[in-house]
């Protein structure tokens, strides 16, 4: 431990021997910091200082330090489009839109081959119009049907039904199928037949509703088709109008950008160039601090007004001194009298407490009452008189006149340069106008070409409408009318049958069945025709719109735009850029791109041509070496020595120390404590002095003295305090005005003149040594600014053209309106027609069966409801006739046995009804009954019925046999 301690100690001593003591080291640190600070401050000062000014960067002008541009940019007016495109009337197609969607779904799912249609079914006319092909004219559908199995199955099924249904109708009518209805037993089959009639009626109603829906869809589609054909010319006309408006808007936009905005730029540059000498002159004054001459002129020109104000201040100062002295002496006397009254006349504790606690003892000690430090305004007035009499105001005027001579030299030098620049700017106007005309011609030719081909495309399938258009609407209306008539008759039948008139209902059903047999083939044939035509036209006009790239038909229809008509004859065009198709143009417009994008992609116009427009001609190297301003300013002076001496004398005159601060620091608001409060306190003390016989004489004097001093304080406060404060306020206003007139940066007059004169001297030195160089730099900067602003105009023009000019969504809208004319107004309604018609026609077939079944049921139910005619003397069946029960006649059965049942007991009834043991049951259906005429009774092989005499007589009278009379009694009545 000892050895280690010694080592540490030796190291510690060595440290102290290597470094000086602590105080010396601290001094060294301070010196290092000082040197480093000086170096940093020096470097910062050099960085802050600019090339032309010790404190400011750039050219040293004030507007540069405020962040303003040396030469302002042109404020160009943006283009606002006011074009109003036609508004397409929105048609309500909600009733047929589902049919359109169904037809499109069916075609898209079944027609999947590429190409979708075999050759010969569609043709291209003039390269831009679809027509029906020769196979359609020849009615040759074999190739189309052979390509799609589902289509041929569907067509064959329809053809079989169309051919077969008329044969079924002939058989139905010739074999009296309508009369061949199975007979039934009322008691046995009535309940079951009623149930079946209700079920069949419900099914019939459901089928009628479905058929009605199809008929409505077909009728509405036919109306839409008629409306589309009628509005075709109006839609094309509106598309042409929108195209014209679009072209007018593009031309107006181009004219605004290339002509109107350039005229604004030209006017801005002309103003900038014509006032360039003033701008350079003012910048020279700003950088060289020659603006100090203007400040000197301001000060000395305002000296007369300052003199007038100072005279007014002089009078106010005297009044202020007088009134403050009066107030100070008055309150001082009041304090003395109060002290005497409280200290000598009375020994009242409240009086002493008042002196101790109130501000009465300090009422005259405020510094605001002492105007000893107020300057003598009379000396300032004499100083202004001397300045005015010495005509010092002419010195800055002469200096300004000399400085303006420099401005005249600048104007003369710029007059040699400005005209050539202005001429270049004016010549540039024509160049931009020519470019605007060129672009307008190209866009107009391009858009007109697109519009022409769009109009031609809208004429697709005109041959279809010309061929079938005259009879189409009549036939469609007739088909829909047939469906509505069938539906109407069937509904009438339902109403009659459900309301109890089943015979009439059955008759109406029979009429409806005959109409269905008559009209089915016609309706189905029309629907099949529209199916085939809709298939072909849909694949030709509608499907390509959604599949532009892959549809072979549209590739044939996708017309080339003749770019040789768009471009100038002298313009050279490559082979790949010459291929511009409608689909390409519409794709670009569908994305709402600018028409310039289309021009650029196909090299119809190069925006670099705008950049290559040379407005300001580039100077040669020799011209660049020449200075615009070559005047010698070394002999320029602003102030002569004599003038400097006069300014120095004026600076050191009687007015030299003037500054309003000399007055303001002596004028304050707190003149005295609140005198009204002190007066109130004195009156309270006076009232507190009580009567004392021994000291009554002294107390009386004390009360009088306190009352007088309270009155005096109120008088001083009223007469002098407000008046003194008013004088101070008026003096402050006038002194502030004098400061604004004759001081610079709130310095006193002497310092203001010194600062300004020094600035003028520095300005004079700057003009002599660096004035010409500074003027040349600003002049060259001016030409650069003109070129820069023109280049900025070009770039802004390119940006505006490529982004905002000619947004071609309206053009695409015109195109799709043409597609809408062909597809959504003409082709889709055709498909909607067969979508409604064919299902309705097919539903007529189950309707036939249901109607026939219901007709038979109603006939049977109608026969059940007819009462049976039975002999009055014979037996009666209450169940069958509804008559009161009558005992049955005596029946002689075979074998000599008697019984009440006319039927065999071993017979089985499967349909319910009366039991075999019920003696009141009588068959109501036609039966084979053998009647013998040899006896008055009817003999059956097994039973014998006694015939009343009345029926035998009636039968003989009418020429009938008794057997026929019996048969007539038991036979049911039909319609």
Automatic annotation (TrEMBL):
InterPro entries with a match to the protein in the record: Prominin
Enumerate the transmembrane spans. 148-175, 196-220, 474-496, 508-533, 832-851
Instruction: Give the membrane topology, semicolon-separated if more than one.
Output: Multi-pass membrane protein
Q: Does the keyword Membrane apply?
A: yes
Question: Does Glycoprotein count among this protein's keywords?
Answer: yes
- Any one GO CC term of the record: membrane
Its domain of life reads: Eukaryota
Enumerate the UniProt keywords alphabetically.
Glycoprotein, Membrane, Transmembrane, Transmembrane helix
The places in or outside the cell where this protein is found are: Membrane
Q: Which PANTHER family match?
A: PROMININ PROM PROTEIN, PROMININ-LIKE PROTEIN
- Entry's family note: Belongs to the prominin family.
UniProt name for this protein = Prominin-like protein
Task: State the taxonomy lineage.
Answer: Eukaryota, Metazoa, Ecdysozoa, Arthropoda, Hexapoda
Chain's gene name: LOC111591928
